[in-house]
Specification:
Helices cover 19% and strands 31% of the residues. By secondary structure, it is of the alpha+beta class.
Length: 144
């Protein structure tokens, strides 16, 4: 059975090992990049790529489907997402060392905020401040 760790135990895992996350570069038909404004800690109010941590026993495909549903309010096949790289984040997540697997996903449906996101917006030009090192990742991938 796939289920998240209790929060206290989850946070403690950062003391011992890096955590593996999937972050989604979501694009619309115009090539604009979707960012979400966080509604949950850490980083409440900051822009970031939609994403989250892979759960024990969860495949990458299952994780992508869960994240798209949980953070964007959409249902779609994870097979539409294409892995584009892995990025190490040693110090930009306040919880600790994170390794982000980046997947690019094109959407035609309109994502909507969920309980985890205050706001969702497509950007032609990225905002100056993007949390969790996601701005660095986007710029390295060629998005400005």
């Amino acid at each position: 059975m796939i289920k998240p760790l209790p929060l206290k135990l989850f946070l403690k895992t950062f003391d011992y090992a890096p955590r593996l996350a999937i972050s989604l570069v979501v694009l619309n038909a115009r090539g604009e990049v979707l960012l979400a404004r966080r509604a949950i800690a850490p980083g409440v109010g900051s822009w970031h790529l939609p994403g989250g941590f892979i759960l024990k026993g969860e495949s990458f495909q299952q994780c992508i489907q869960r994240l798209v549903r949980k953070e964007l309010g959409l249902k779609m096949s994870a097979k539409l997402a294409k892995q584009t790289g892995a990025f190490e984040n040693l110090h930009k997540d306040p919880r600790g060392h994170v390794v982000d697997l980046i997947y690019i996903l094109k959407v035609s449906a309109a994502p909507r905020p969920t309980k985890e996101t205050q706001e969702i917006k497509f950007f032609k030009k990225l905002p100056a401040v993007i949390g969790f090192g996601h701005g660095d990742i986007l710029r390295e991938l060629g998005y400005k």
